[in-house]
Amino acid sequence: MAEAKEVKVEEIKKSAEEKSCPVQRSLYYISEFLSGPMCGRCFPCAMGSYEARVRLQSLIEGRGTEADINALKRITAEMAEASMCKKGKDTASFIAGWLSEEAFDGHLSGTCSSGECSALIEYRVVSGKCTACGRCTEVCTHAAVIGEKAKPYRSGVPFEIRQKRCTRCGECIKVCPEGAIILVGVKESTLAGV
Hints:
Blueprint: H1 9-16, H2 22-35, H3 43-60, H4 66-82, H5 86-99, H6 103-108, E1 121-125, H7 135-139, E2 145-148, E3 157-161, H8 171-175, E4 181-185, H9 186-192
Antiparallel strand pairs: 1-4, 2-3
Helix pairs in contact: 1-2, 2-3, 2-5, 3-4, 4-5
């Protein structure tokens, strides 16, 4: 029987750093740490990692508060000091480093500057740029894009995206030849009336 290869925290960190959003990066790292190299022998590391995952998930879903960020700072400080092994101390160091980035504060105000947190972003059609070609409706498998394709001697009905149906897959942006579909923060779009 082949023995499973042990995943190292440095490998998880390297994979996590492929994500642009520091909050997503932190959640990915802590989730992988919990399912792999964490041994669970010391209380600060085990309980801290589980609580950190819950707090990070809240931030990504747009439900995060200042208390979540303060709790993450407390957790990383306690893990760094009281974890019995290097893995726990390294985990605390990685998360604390990412916590210092401004993106965490952005998530509190409802914006994800990297556009990776789907609960904090929306896809919008800029009506002045849209030529009603219909390519976006063809690729949208969830019928989130509504409007009428332009036909000879008819201009078509302006396209728009139903936010409740949109899964934020990004396929519509990829096929739009005019760049008429943009990504905006949920808070930005309601404030600006986009």
